[in-house]
Design a protein that fits this description.
This protein has 2 helices and 12 strands. By secondary structure, the protein is mainly beta. It has a 6-stranded antiparallel β-barrel with strand order 2-3-6-7-5-4. Strand 6 and strand 7 form a beta hairpin. The N and C termini lie far apart (96 Å).
Length: 215
């Protein structure tokens, strides 16, 4: 019986040694570049974004990569995304899609690239190759070429700035303003008519306005 405490002490020490050894074996240090190795990878995403107690956006995307440990924390959507904007009654208030997108989480800044297409609540359609959405400043802007289709006219130009709803906007350097009816006839008449998603450039004799257009 006098040996029992000593045996228990030896057994406890052995168990502790084994447990500590196992802990060390399970702790593995993985070296990964936070700039290229995502902290989270999610596929077939369908999620909503809320603001001020209301659901504002419904986002769907095939692939969502989060790089929260990067020098500039960001989310990447390399296979594109589709956004439906919702009003307070959960009715569709506009749509937005692009081939790729990046969200810089600290700045709350979105960058959309390639085939960026938007439609606002009035049915106006916008097409450009790069667009930025600053959520802090509540504005959308671009320095790229932009094509706008309204019910009454077609507007094209370089440089664009708008509110988040895409209802009040400015084209900084307009290059073409065409009536919608004339635009429709030009793209459908004759065997050599351009495709429906193109627009004829203005003729050299045409005079394009040089000031900004504010809608």
């Amino acid at each position: 019986m006098r040996l029992l405490p000593a045996l228990l002490m030896v057994l406890a020490t052995a168990i502790c040694t084994i447990a500590c050894s196992e802990d060390k074996r399970e702790t593995i240090s993985i070296s990964a570049d936070p700039e290229t190795f995502p902290t989270m990878r999610t596929t077939n995403v369908s999620t909503v974004i809320s603001d001020s107690g209301y659901t504002r956006y419904h986002i769907t995307t095939p692939l969502w990569l989060m790089f929260e440990e990067a020098t500039e924390p960001h989310w990447n959507f390399p296979e594109g995304m589709f956004i439906v904007k919702l009003d307070n009654d959960m009715k569709e208030d506009g749509t937005f899609t692009s081939d790729t997108a990046t969200f810089f989480s600290n700045k709350k800044l979105w960058q959309f690239d390639r085939n960026v297409r938007m439609r606002n609540v009035d049915g106006d359609r916008f097409l450009t190759q790069q667009l930025f959405w600053d959520q802090n400043a509540h504005k959308v802007y671009s320095d790229s070429f932009i094509h706008i289709e309204r019910s009454d006219r077609i507007i094209e130009g370089y440089g664009f700035e708008s509110n988040e709803n895409m209802t009040t906007y400015t084209v900084r350097r307009p290059s073409a303003i065409l009536p919608t009816a004339g635009f429709t006839r030009a793209r459908t008449d004759g065997p050599g008519a351009p495709r429906a998603d193109t627009i004829q450039p203005p003729q050299p004799t045409a005079t394009a306005p040089t000031d900004s257009i504010k809608e």
